[in-house]
Design brief:
The chain has 126 residues and is mainly alpha-helical. The protein folds into two domains: 65 residues, Orthogonal Bundle (Multidrug-efflux Transporter Regulator, Chain: A, Domain 2), CATH 1.10.1660.10; 59 residues. 77% of the residues lie in helices and 5% in strands. It has a two-stranded antiparallel sheet. Strand 1 and strand 2 form a beta hairpin. The relative contact order is 0.06.
């Protein structure tokens, strides 16, 4: 299963230890059923989207619970909205930082040019 999803065996075992997936055990062998594969795919998608494992667990558990699908989807959509808002804020912060760095770089280059000109000018006067 690890190879199929491009993760390490340790990663799969970690998710087992956390109870996020629960393969059938036959002696020392583990049998991963469709449910485990689906859950692992959801876990990995959630991780790529930046959700913490506990939030991923909550979302997956909601879909396992016998509740109305509408409530589950509304909850997931709320989580997605929060995550998107957080990422958009981080993006704005990164863009602001890049802009500030650019301005700082321009000032440093201008100061360097002034220092170089002053140094050249004072060398020429001696």
């Amino acid at each position: 299963m690890a190879d199929a999803f491009g993760v390490t065996h340790r990663t799969v075992r970690h998710y087992e230890d956390l109870g996020l997936i629960a393969p059938e055990r036959r002696g020392t062998h583990r049998l991963y059923h469709r449910r485990d594969r689906t859950r692992l795919a959801l876990i990995l998608r959630g991780k790529r989207l930046g959700f913490p494992l506990e939030e991923i667990r909550t979302i997956i558990d909601l879909f396992d619970a016998p509740r109305g699908r509408r409530t589950q989807l509304e909850y997931v959509l709320g989580q997605v909205e929060q995550r998107r808002h957080d990422l958009e804020q981080r993006l704005r912060d990164v863009q602001d930082t890049i802009e500030e760095l650019g301005e700082f770089e321009r000032r440093c280059r201008a100061d360097l040019t002034r220092v170089s000109l002053a140094s050249t000018s004072s060398s020429a006067n001696t």
